[in-house]
Amino acid sequence: MRFTAFTFNILLLCASSLGITSFLNSNDQSRFKDILLSGLNSDDAGSLDYAIRGLTFLEFDIPNKDNLCQKLKTKLESQTTETLFHVGKASASLSCALQLSNTQKEKLETTITATNGVSEIFLATGALSSFGITLDAPKVLKALNTALKKDDSISSLGQAFQVASLLDGDVSSVFGRIEDVVVQADQIDGKMLQFEGGLSVTALVISGAYKLANTVGQAPFISKEQANKFAEYFVSRKSVQTVKGVYYLLEATSVLADNAFHIPVAITLASKAAVSKSEPKFQVKVTNILGKGLGSLTIIADSATRTLDDAVVLSQKQLTPKDGLFELDLMSSNPGKGVYRVALSASSSEDTRLVGNVGAIVEVKVLTKIAIEETEIGTADSDQSTAAKLRKIIYPKKLDGSLEADSHQKLILKFLLRDTLTKELVTVHQAFVRLTHRESQQEIFFVAEPDVNDAYKFDLDLATKAKDFLYLSGHYSMDLIIGDAVIENPTVWQIAELQLSFITPSAGQPKSSKAAEMYQMKPEIKHMFREPEKRPPGIVSNAFTLLAIFPFVIFIVLVSRLGVNFSSLSFSLSALGFHLSIGGIFVLFVSFWLYLNMFQTLKLLVVIAIPAFVSGNYMLTQIAAKRRGATKQN
């Protein structure tokens, strides 16, 4: 039996991958409308087109149609294929009385050649058909098939499906390519399918495939599971913010919501995801991905399985229709508290197009109320030399008087939690005991643990836990906190007033004052730089200084013995500038050695180096000119 139930749950889990978890609700569509209305103010033909056609998908009465038609008329003067495409599509949606000139018509017709590529064929045929011009189907189909041999990318195939859907005659050569492109879709988390290129490319391919299938009169090569995964992807992109993105999303979802082959079904919660004895029913909504009804349906709860232990509490139970929703009394099956996965299936005797209508999963919590029973509180000696002295207390009353305890004793609290519906003992996720010091408002929490019989016991040895209290004696209030995700009545119960006494670990400063010091301002932390290393003796520094100067002394001595020829020394402006600049550089180096840092030295060096370079260049030029003149005279 357990194996059968397990197998059944696995099959439902696999089937649930076909279900759509959400749909484009009224809030989403209202936000889309605002985005599209902002696009009507654009001067770009593409943005105008996407906004107008998007609002048409929303069945919204577009304002100022005459002004928009006039704006489109000014755009009609363009000769580009893309602009004519967008003007034609938008004017057709608005029923504007616009026509192409003979020149524009001939240009679009001559564009339909294989050499121009699939994209240009898509734009040209879209423009011509929008202006009511009959397409030459054999010519278009031949050019399209030839262009696809050169470029059969996913976006090109999507455009080809859109073009072929406009043609009369045999378009099976293009229709057969649907299977080729669908297998190239990328799967996301095993739940969604999309094409490389994102929302616009995926919407172009899927909407084109279903339009072409409608033209051919044959179901596209897209399985039910694939159709639902594509639908799940489109619904997941409901946060799109651009006019173009909203248009493509609405185009794809509109096609999937109304076609002759596949209608993805969204089964979603329409009420609180929780039931209880006072509110035993939950409701679901069954729609297409645009949130519209699907006619007369029968909704069956295949199973309701508790996630904690896989216990199945019902199977094959029909939901009751009510005000466009379907409701189920889950509490009639007497489920225990917990989270349940309810597998739902929708069927229709009239519509065979529904897909993703089997094994849709909704999660529902079964809530219950708990009662706190057999509560006892008291003290016992830590060495267990005497029996515990416990006093009974009934929720929600408070213990009379104050309970005293010291470091030689331990504090004991016992209680039971009982499900008021099933009368069974239960455990909860959160069972805390909070002790609050009245004077300082310092709080300390402890966890109450259940034993093997689900009876809770809190045992606090004051001697071992004194450090947690910071040895802070005094008056404490004791609260019991009970909470869980599946209980209706989370509780904070003030049980008793306590007088606790702790022994300080030393005769020094009392721990109460030490605790207060913890929250006082501490001394400012100042950064301490490492002290510089000890300098070498002065005699060592002087010796190295003399060694550094010694080569210069030798140079002076040698120059004085050899003699200096000042005959070639020039007193021109360039010579004086060069020598002064060189002298300045030497002075700068000495200053760097004495007190300047690297950055200051580099800045000053740049200032001095420029005149040194310019004056030096002029001086060397003059010297070279003198030498050439002397050579000619000789």
Automatic annotation (TrEMBL):
Keyword Transferase on entry: no
Signal peptide per UniProt: 1-19
Residues of the Ribophorin II N-terminal domain: 24-257
Location of the Ribophorin II second domain: 265-366
UniProt pathway annotation: Protein modification; protein glycosylation
Functional description taken from the UniProt entry: Subunit of the oligosaccharyl transferase (OST) complex that catalyzes the initial transfer of a defined glycan (Glc(3)Man(9)GlcNAc(2) in eukaryotes) from the lipid carrier dolichol-pyrophosphate to an asparagine residue within an Asn-X-Ser/Thr consensus motif in nascent polypeptide chains, the first step in protein N-glycosylation. N-glycosylation occurs cotranslationally and the complex associates with the Sec61 complex at the channel-forming translocon complex that mediates protein translocation across the endoplasmic reticulum (ER). All subunits are required for a maximal enzyme activity.
Protein name: Dolichyl-diphosphooligosaccharide--protein glycosyltransferase subunit 2
Organism classification: Eukaryota, Metazoa, Ecdysozoa, Arthropoda, Crustacea
